[in-house]
User: Which sequence fits this backbone?
């Protein structure tokens, strides 16, 4: 197979997003637009990826370096059009021999299956393969003008279309594939002789046809190639992503009582047989095993829920929460960086942060793991079968032994031995008749006014 490389165009400032965050760093499904495009390009088998960035965003450059290394960065400075952007990657691909895929960095719904036909056209002998689509409203898109044999003759921008050309449904998606040497050879000849004084990538189509080089187009769904230039488009992409994820999980045997209310992330993993109730949010990093039930209005992030566990309603699982088989985490319970053993229960109103809870232990209502001293986090470990009474405060670092009890309302500051009972309460004082005397005094004072 011919070697493959990719150039991702991510130098745009994204002014229409009206946000201080660079456009390609906005997220769909909890993952940045640029990360999603990199994932897709990697899935096509591209062995080398170059991302074209602008000088205005150090954060975009940092993302590229973190994922692909410094050699993957190409800088477009100043921005002089799409053709100029791709030319910025020329030096980075100087030693590469094979096909180069050019894609936009703001297309979060693009998948490898949408791009593979471009490489197929290249393998069939087309020097230049373009990605097209047929939008519901083609008003603003450049039209693919094709000959009787289906080959592309030119791309006409919407503003330049004749009435006949405006009737053409096939539009250019801004992505293409060509041999590296041929691609940059064409780009070296593109001029900026136009109203904007920019170098347009689409001009290579005219250069190719002038050489009688065959230009062919493959087509993808409109949703696959949609860019996210505005908050509205970003929300539309999120809606499509969520619809896809819901359909995927339902097809895999996940039960959802109101699928339209569930919100998933790009890496959410849910096994067949799990049940998801209404209005559940899965932020990144969540795995749910078979038989688990996630009840309504729960929020999970960076957590693992094992088989048969019951979560919620109104539960919050944060980064590092591991809920064991058949364990219960109930309403208004927050768990962060705690490993909960099989069959353990924290059924209501608790904060469990940093530590572990042994199998079949019971955490009473109102229990708090006091894990932070203002500077550092400390761990609390509750042993198997232990019973933590309601409204207990466990001041870390502390250990509750297996089978031990803590009395309700206790503040536990020292380790508790296995099978022991730990109590920490003041002496209860009762003053007979005090309430009646108090009320009488108050009423008498009120009567004098």
Assistant:
């Amino acid at each position: 197979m011919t070697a493959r490389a990719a150039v991702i165009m991510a130098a745009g400032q994204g002014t229409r997003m009206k946000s201080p965050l660079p456009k390609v760093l906005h997220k769909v499904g909890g993952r940045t637009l640029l990360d999603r495009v990199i994932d897709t390009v990697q899935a096509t088998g591209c062995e080398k990826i170059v991302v074209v960035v602008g000088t205005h965003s150090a954060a975009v450059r940092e993302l590229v370096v973190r994922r692909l290394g410094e050699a993957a960065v190409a800088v477009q400075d100043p921005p002089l059009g799409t053709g100029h952007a791709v030319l910025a990657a020329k030096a980075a691909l100087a030693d590469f021999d094979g096909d180069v895929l050019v894609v936009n960095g703001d297309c979060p719904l693009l998948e490898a299956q949408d791009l593979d036909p471009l490489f197929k056209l290249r393998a069939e002998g087309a020097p230049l393969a373009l990605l097209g689509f047929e939008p519901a409203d083609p008003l603003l898109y450049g039209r693919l003008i094709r000959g009787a044999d289906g080959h592309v003759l030119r791309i006409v921008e919407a503003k330049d279309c004749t009435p006949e050309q405006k009737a053409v449904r096939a539009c250019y998606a801004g992505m293409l594939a060509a041999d590296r040497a041929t691609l940059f050879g064409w780009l070296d000849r593109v001029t900026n002789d136009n109203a904007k004084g920019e170098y347009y990538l689409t001009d290579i189509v005219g250069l190719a046809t002038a050489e009688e080089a065959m230009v062919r187009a493959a087509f993808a769904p409109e949703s696959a190639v949609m860019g996210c230039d505005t908050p509205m488009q970003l929300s539309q992409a999120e809606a499509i992503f969520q619809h896809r994820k819901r359909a995927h999980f339902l097809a895999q045997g996940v039960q959802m009582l109101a699928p339209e209310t569930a919100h998933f992330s790009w890496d959410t993993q849910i096994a067949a047989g799990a049940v998801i109730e209404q209005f559940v949010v899965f932020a990144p990093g969540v795995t749910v095993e078979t038989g688990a039930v996630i009840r309504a209005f729960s929020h999970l992030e960076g957590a693992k829920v094992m088989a048969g566990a019951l979560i919620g309603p109104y539960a919050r699982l944060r980064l590092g929460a591991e809920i064991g088989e058949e364990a219960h985490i109930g309403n208004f319970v927050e768990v962060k960086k705690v490993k909960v053993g099989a069959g353990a229960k924290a059924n209501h109103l608790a904060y469990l942060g940093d530590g572990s809870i042994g199998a079949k232990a019971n955490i009473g209502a109102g229990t708090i793991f006091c894990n932070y001293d203002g500077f550092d986090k400390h761990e609390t470990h509750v042993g198997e079968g232990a019973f933590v009474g309601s409204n207990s405060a466990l001041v870390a670092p502390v250990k509750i032994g297996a089978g031990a009890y803590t009395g309700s309302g206790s503040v536990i500051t020292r380790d508790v031995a296995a099978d022991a009972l730990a109590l920490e309460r003041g002496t209860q004082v009762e003053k007979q008749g005090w309430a009646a005397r108090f009320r009488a005094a108050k009423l008498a004072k009120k009567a004098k006014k």
About this structure: Residues 231-251 form the longest helix (21 residues). Residues 432 and 438 are 12 Å apart (CA to CA). The mean pLDDT is 96.
